[in-house]
Amino acid sequence: MRNLITDVPGVKVGNAHEPRAATGVTVAVFDKSCVASVATLGGAPGDRAATLLEPEMTRGVIDAVVLSGGSLYGLDAAGGVSAVLCKQGKGATFGGIVLPVAVQAILFDLTNGGDKDWIKQPITHRPPYWDLGRDAALAAGADFALGTVGAGYGGTTANLKGGLGSASQRTASGFIVGALAAVNAVGMATVGDSKHFWAAPYEQGREFGGHGLPQKFEAKALAIRFKGQPAEATATTIALVATDATLTKPECKRLAIMANDGLARALRPVHAPTDGDTVFAVSTSQAAPGGDPPLLAELGAAAADCLARAVARGVYEATALPYAAALPDYRRRFGS
Amino acid sequence: MRNLITDVPGVKVGNAHEPRAATGVTVAVFDKSCVASVATLGGAPGDRAATLLEPEMTRGVIDAVVLSGGSLYGLDAAGGVSAVLCKQGKGATFGGIVLPVAVQAILFDLTNGGDKDWIKQPITHRPPYWDLGRDAALAAGADFALGTVGAGYGGTTANLKGGLGSASQRTASGFIVGALAAVNAVGMATVGDSKHFWAAPYEQGREFGGHGLPQKFEAKALAIRFKGQPAEATATTIALVATDATLTKPECKRLAIMANDGLARALRPVHAPTDGDTVFAVSTSQAAPGGDPPLLAELGAAAADCLARAVARGVYEATALPYAAALPDYRRRFGS
How many Cα atoms within 13 Å fall on the side-chain side of residue B246? Predict the structure, then answer.
């Protein structure tokens, strides 16, 4: 086990980023088309091809999940991913036409200090996301980096640099569950400015430092803080949970909803009006059916734990952006 | 009155298409950001930035609605539109960053005979939609063509060429309502293969030929027919309704739901598992509040009528594609 979402058989992940613009794209691609759904509990989401994941919609399977920076400009990324998938012959075929399905969610990293030249010189300078999506899809593999990479490259939280995180576990029933998160929360992953992560109860080994929870929760540490000015704070944590259990689309919807509880446990506040928090859930269906309520409950609980851990790892593994006003990173502040 | 959606003050429309690929993009851009929502009743939708239009989401206003061909590949179009809107300084500003909101829905025109070179040679040949979105936004004005243009360029129905349609009307309360539709239904706009449109009861003047309904409805004419092989029939009618009445986002959601009834009256079948029928509704808010139930009911009824008429006009104004297997157009078959 790599403690990555790629421990789920059939899932590969690739990153691509543009350091000058301080933004990037992360793609999860699937060996075979996967059953999937989504639960969007943030108040300011941006997504592409997400409606077809609702249980009442026909299309049941997808070929990639794209997470990216760039806010709405970033939604070009799934186009570059789709070109790679098309070249690889992935997706359904209609009358000889290959039509892969790449779904996407974005986060807002436009004011993080990077040079967004496509906003300064629109039309002549294209946003980099189509190319980044293509490159991330071409880079997909079982191993991938965490922290200031891919969709997490430009991410921040209210007090620390955010980043890309991942985690996995095997359930008591033998299923594998993994999570992938690009952390850019309007809230915080730590208890105040302490070294303690809210996700500490679920930590495996010392995957994000092993500091546990504080003995006392001071009022100051519990003060609710938002990134940036409230009126401008546009944030978002976007994520994917995956399992090898065979699930239907409505069961994936349930998995996505329960997985959001991992965001609730790892970030405070989260699901805010200016967060676009979006959690996709996919079943690679390489293992036995997991949709009976007791099994699905176990998968959902595991997905929430994995996602909470992935969020903390995303912050723990991040490196601060090289700008004077950039938020500090966890490890320079607290050691590793 | 032009009998176009641009009769609604504050709405401009532009088309762009690539004849060789037999596909295109239509964009409605707004002089000022508009309150908007969406109702997706088709079973196989493809959209971009649509989730933020749900009433529980924060973002209340949008700057453009993009309709396009290309199925999921077409979802790059909103990127090109956004570049133009950014250049024009439209949209909200966050920390000095201009962020316009262009929402989009697509239709499936990939098997209509056009040369989709980006599918034959993926990665090296990019889909044309980003450029088409940019060009359609740059072309936006009060006058625009109907038929085989823009997002309707590649559209078809079960028995006739589809196309882009539009219509408008003034309500008894003095509000203006308009509709815009790119017709690519899996079903039919006519009663069997007759010259009679299902939308005939709502026709104004002879805007789509003035043939009324047939005196008798023959069983043969009522036989349910789908475009293409059922397993491959991927279709979709996508639309926008607009009004100058001042509405909230939940009221726009209601308007979008009622407007879908216009699709139900003009197309049979519609909202099918392989249709991605999506109806956006926007309020330019240049007139008085229209959200009180009696006023909103009147606006919804008018929106449904306008959308039914827009569908019929889209088919009526269309010109057949120049391929041997292409479906015939209405006017060559029945005269104008």
Answer: 5
> Nearest CA to B184 among B274, B259, B262, B121?
B274
Three-class SS state of A216: coil
Which 1-30 residues of chain A touch chain B by CB within 8 A?
A: none
Kindly report, residue by residue over A65-98, the tens digit of the pLDDT. Answer: 999 999 999 999 999 999 999 999 999 888 889 9
- CA atoms within a 13 Å half-sphere pointing along the CA-CB vector of A9: 10
| Count of H-run helices and E-run strands, chain A | 7, 11
**In contact, B237 and B263? CB cutoff 8 Å:** yes
Q: Helical H runs in chain A?
A: 77-87, 117-120, 129-138, 219-222, 249-266, 293-316, 330-334
Chain centroid to CA B234: how far?
Answer: 16
Half-sphere exposure of B153 (CA within 13 A, CB side): 24
* A326–chain B Cβ distance below 8 A for any pair: no
ipTM score of complex: 0.95
pTM for the model? 0.97
Token code pair at residue B70: 């290309």
- Euclidean distance between CA atoms B183 and B69, whole angstroms: 10
Residues 6 or more apart whose CB falls under 8 angstroms from that of B256 comprise B37, B38, B39, B241, B279, B280, B281
Q: What are phi and psi of A110, to 5 degrees?
A: -75, -20
* Chain B residues touching residue A47 (CB < 8 angstroms): 48-51
CB B263 within 8 A of CB B222: no
Q: How far is CA A17 from CA A97, A240, A322, B15, B79, in A?
A: 30, 19, 15, 34, 19
Residue B107 tokens read as 């239709």
Predicted confidence (pLDDT) per residue in A100-143, tens digit: 999 999 999 999 999 999 999 999 999 999 999 999 999 999 99
A98 touches chain B (CB under 8 A): yes
State how far the Cα of A318 lies from the Cα of B321, in Å rounded to an integer. Answer: 54
Q: Which two tokens stand for residue A198?
A: 């809210």
Which of B196, B173, B157, B162 shows the shortest CA–CA distance to B300?
A: B173
Q: Are A187 and A197 in contact (CB under 8 A)?
A: no
What residues of chain B lie within 8 A of the CB of A134, using their CB? 123
Helix, strand or coil, per DSSP, at residue A65? strand
CB A275 within 8 A of CB B51: no
Subunit contact A45:B52, Cβ cutoff 8 A:
yes
Burial of residue A224 (number of CB atoms within 10 Å: 0-12, 13-18, 19+): exposed
Which positions ≥6 away from A88 have C-beta within 8 Å? none
Residues of A in Cβ contact (< 8 Å) with B276: 52
Find out whether the peptide bond into B269 is cis, omega within 30 degrees of 0: yes
Q: Cα–Cα distance between A287 and A290 in angstroms, integer?
A: 8
CA distance B50 to B40: 9
Cα–Cα distance, A235 to B112 (Å, whole number): 41
Q: Would you call B61 an interface residue with chain A, using a CB distance cutoff of 8 Å?
A: no
How is residue B286 written in tokens? Answer: 């240049």
Q: Are B118 and B110 in contact (CB under 8 A)?
A: no
List the structure tokens of A113: 């200090």
